Amino acid sequence: AYERRFPTCPLIPMFVASDTVNEYKSEDEAIHVIERRCKLDIDAPRLLKKIAGVDYVYFVQKNSLNRRERTLHIEAYNETFSNRVIINEHCSYTVHPDNEDWTCFEQSASLDIKSFFGFESTVEKIAMKQYTSNIKKGKEIIEYYLKQLEEEGITFVPRWTPPVACKSESSTSHPRRPVSPAINIPESATKEGLSNKEILNTSSSPSEPTAGTPDDKLDADYIKRYLGDLTPMQESCLIRLRQWLQETHKGKIPKDEHILRFLRARDFNIDKAREILCQSLTWRKQHQVDYILDTWNPPQVLQDYYAGGWHHHDKDGRPLYVLRLGQMDTKGLVRALGEEALLRYVLSINEEGLRRCEENTKVFGRPISSWTCLVDLEGLNMRHLWRPGVKALLRIIEVVEANYPETLGRLLILRAPRVFPVLWTLVSPFIDDNTRKKFLIYAGNDYQGPGGLLDYIDKEIIPDFLGGECMCEVPEGGLVPKSLYRTAEELENEDIKLWTETIYQSASVFKGAPHEVLIQIVDASSVITWDFDVCKGDIVFNIFHSKRAPQPPKKDSLGAHSITSPGGNNVQLIDKVWQLGRDYSMVESPLICKEGESVQGSHVTRWPGFYILQWKFHSMPACATTNLPRVDDVLASLQVSSHKCKVMYYTEVIGSEDFRGSMTSLESSHSGFSQLSAATTSSSQSHSSSMISR
Questions:
Q1: Residues ≥6 apart with Cβ < 8 Å to 528
Q2: Which residues form the GOLD domain (predicted)?
Q3: Per mean pLDDT, which range of 285-289, 430-434, 662-666 is the poorest?
Q4: Where would you tag: which of 24, 244, 411, 666 has the fewest CB atoms within 10 A of its CB?
Q5: Is the separation of the CB atoms in 332 and 384 below 8 Å?
Q6: Residue 494, CB half-sphere, CA atoms under 13 Å: how many?
Q7: DSSP one-letter string for 305-321
Q8: Are 474 and 464 in contact (CB under 8 A)?
Q9: Which residue has the higher pLDDT, 614 or 640?
Q10: What secondary structure does DSSP assign to 35-72, as a single string?
């Protein structure tokens, strides 16, 4: 059935043709390896194809059929642009070890974009979109050809048997079955990759629902191994939210374990879970949190004086983090580093915690989705209640609560002194009720008695400073030398520097107050590129040209309520007295962008001068209705006006000499990649809109 998709397959429109470049068959006909060069017409923006100078891309595919093992392995890699983009894909069909009527199908791929003419983000999104659609069609295509075979009367293929000369040796043996497990939902994703494992029932039973629909059921072994006990309702919520992400999020889909954390945090209310998950994905993208472990090295002051670190695991297999808060000079750390460095360090700790949970899940063979934190308050006194330090602590708690829900399995607070109730009164209102239930507080040496530390941590790994025998490598903390303190101005500049490491900027758009960005072009035929996400509300995107520079911008800092971003700006450049057609001209047709969409595009400049990119509030018709979910308490807490939109954008000007091919047109690609809205539709579809440069 699989071989019938060659040399071309009408069910895969992008698969144009293929040629056999190598073929091998073993003498006993048990092994058949065939290598093909496949020609694909990738669904990419016309501009990108012109820049790359190609209309088609070529992949090399190697199919290895092993009739003895009853397996089919398929490997593919890209030949086109292999020095810029590396794509590797592996698929396998095997027999289920417990039911010979079932075929296990496993598909995985990895994507590594080294460089692509400045369009790395767009190429990533196109590749992920293509791969996701291929996953959904894979089962449909194989079942199509199976049905075709049945209509031709082919319902059975005899198993391979050794040649007659070998029968006497193997008459008592049985074909060895593969042992790969059958899992029917996306599992781990490495780098920018995905994997999909599902069971195809090749017996005569009725056809199953198409993969990915809410009617699907998760494999019981997968649930037990990776997710834990789920009721049918909880399983259904996970599948529906994951499917919604697959349909609208056209980017790196969070793992099931991560999605499940947000569902649990909102008691499996899909609308509320989706809202906080989308807000978190916005935050992760804007501040590049996915790469923090690889790209950020903590300052030496943190490594020397931050009295915390990972220390084995508890009795439930959860990673154990030890924090000697009483020995930590919080005032000194804030004075030497500022809030942002401390926040980033805590984020790196949480990212490391997620990684350790995955490792422990593999080691213990059961789902480990949270960690245990042991906080030793020995030495805590009034200096820890220094106001800026408490302010930094509250901010860190709020960011962690919003973006790492249900990651704290248990918090053990030991040797709480008399001053602790004061600190607890300050921080407890900022901690979620579900999280507070996981706190266990011990005064003095109570942790050594019944119901104490030994109930949760093995005796062999109790740290030495708590009376145990295990040497703990957590730094002892101590006072930060005042010579390392920095001035308020230095810290303020450092804070800005840390936040602006992201290439994206945030802006607020109000009714009657658009946000505008000025780009001065010296050389005609330069290329203005943009990549923006509509975080909230609907906007209209415009591009204008003027021969004269506008007046200095009117700028108002907004978003002071936001604790997870530096706030959005609102800059207006076009003077109220300017007239369209006289003082400035429109060089692109207005583009309406809906909440949650991600838009990428380019404009080839025809004249030098001043170009203005404008994001303007889009008013809905009076009769229009919307089914966007709204959570009143979230909106009330953020105090967001219904006449306010938010965008996150990145712009760049590239010289024409850096491009190849004709630059007479462009495509602005809508992918819904980030799905960044605080409240988004459940049926948002990706689409594209062509804009012609004039």
A1: 519, 521, 543, 602, 603, 605, 611, 613, 651, 652, 653
A2: 500-653
A3: 662-666
A4: 24
A5: no
A6: 19
A7: H--EEEEEE-TTS-EEE
A8: no
A9: 614
A10: EEEEEE-----HHHHHHHT-S-EEEEEEEEEETTTTEE
Q: Which amino acid is at 62?
A: K
Which residues in the chain are classed under CATH 1.10.8.20? 218-286
The token pair at 633 is 């308490």
CATH 1.10.357.10 fits 218-286, yes or no: no
Q: How far apart are CA 54 and CA 44, in angstroms?
A: 11
Q: Between β-strands 598-604 and 609-617, what pairing exists: parallel, antiparallel or unpaired? A: unpaired
The amino acid at 466: L
The strand ranges marked E within 188-230 are 194-201
Name the amino acid, one letter, at 581.
G
Structure tokens at 48: 């990108």
Residue ranges of the chain assigned to CATH 2.60.120.680: 503-549+567-619+639-671
pLDDT of residue 493: 67
Q: How many Å separate Cα 89 from the centre of its chain?
A: 20
CATH of 291-481, one of 3.90.79.10, 2.60.40.10, 1.10.443.10, 3.40.525.10: 3.40.525.10
CB 674 within 8 A of CB 249: yes
Which residues lie closer than 8 Å to 8 by C-beta, 6 or more apart? Answer: 15, 16, 17, 18
Extract the tokens encoding 61.
């595919």
Compute the Cα dihedral for 9, 10, 11, 12 and give only its sign: positive
Instruction: Assign 616 to helix, strand or coil.
Output: strand
Is residue 100 pLDDT above 70, yes or no? yes
Cβ 613 vs Cβ 519: under 8 Å: yes
Helix or strand run (H / E) with residue 260:
helix 256-265
Contact between residue 654 and residue 118 where contact means Cβ atoms under 8 Å apart: yes
CATH number of 503-549+567-619+639-671: 2.60.120.680
With b for 16 or more beta-carbon neighbours within 10 A and e for fewer, the 103-127 pattern comes to: bbbbbbbbbebeebbebebbbbbbb
Distance CA 371, CA 408 (A): 5
Cβ-based neighbours of 315, under 8 Å, separated by 6 or more: 455, 456, 457, 458
CATH code of the domain occupying 1-150 = 3.30.530
Classify the C-alpha dihedral 287-290-291-294 as positive or negative.
positive
Question: Please, where in the chain does CATH 3.40.525.10 lie?
Answer: 291-481
Residue type, 181: P
Give residue-wise pLDDT tens across range 414-473. Answer: 988 887 887 777 777 777 777 888 888 888 888 888 888 899 999 999 999 998 888 988
DSSP secondary structure, 266-325, as one string: TTT-HHHHHHHHHHHHHHHHHTTGGGHHHH----HHHHHH--EEEEEE-TTS-EEEEE-G
**H-helix or E-strand containing 644?**
strand 644-654
Nearest to 192 by CA among 86, 90, 107, 116: 86
What are the Cα distances from residue 264, in Å, to 45, 92, 541?
39, 34, 37
Dump pLDDT digits (tens) for 334-377.
888 888 888 899 999 999 999 999 999 999 888 999 999 999 99
| CATH 3.30.530 domain range(s) in the chain | 1-150
Residue 102 in tokens? 């079932």
pTM passes above 0.70 = no
Q: Amino acid identity, residue 441?
A: I
Reported as a single tens digit per residue, the pLDDT across 585-625 is 999 899 998 887 777 788 889 889 999 999 999 876 544 44
What percentage of the chain has pLDDT greater than the value 90? 20
Q: Are 127 and 87 in contact (CB under 8 A)?
A: yes
